[in-house]
Amino acid sequence: YYWAARNDIPVFCPAITDGSVGDMLYFHSYKNPGLVLDVVDDIREINNAALHARHTGMLIFGGGLVKHHICNANLMRNGADFSVFVNTGQEFDGSDSGAKPDEAISWGKIKADATPVKVHAEATLVLPLL
């Protein structure tokens, strides 16, 4: 986060309260009240960033909630110009991670004339290779 903050790059975390981070925030709030995490402001910021961008692209490692969040932001602008999904999700299980890019095209999350790519691989193995 240091370099993102230094370069005025927004960081979004739609699932910050999920899991142990949420638990720690809960316990922290008793000794240090006043911390506010505004998920509504986050969704407004990411959607507006996508809406007002000249071009957008999605490079998504993994899937689930984060993939859904980023794809929905691009829905606001009638789709991303390019996308690369890297995950091990398979289509047969019905998961968001397993969905092929054409599913996102059908919803308008990726532009119809885009050339999306899905890499079937473990994200933590592929990311260092890039």
UniProtKB/TrEMBL annotation:
Keywords: NAD. It holds the Pfam family DS. It comes from the Eukaryota. GO terms for cellular component: cytoplasm. The keyword Nuclease does not apply. One of its GO terms (molecular function) is deoxyhypusine synthase activity. The keyword NAD applies. InterPro entries: Deoxyhypusine_synthase, Deoxyhypusine_synthase_sf, DHS-like_NAD/FAD-binding_dom. Belongs to the deoxyhypusine synthase family. This is Deoxyhypusine synthase. It comes from Diacronema lutheri.
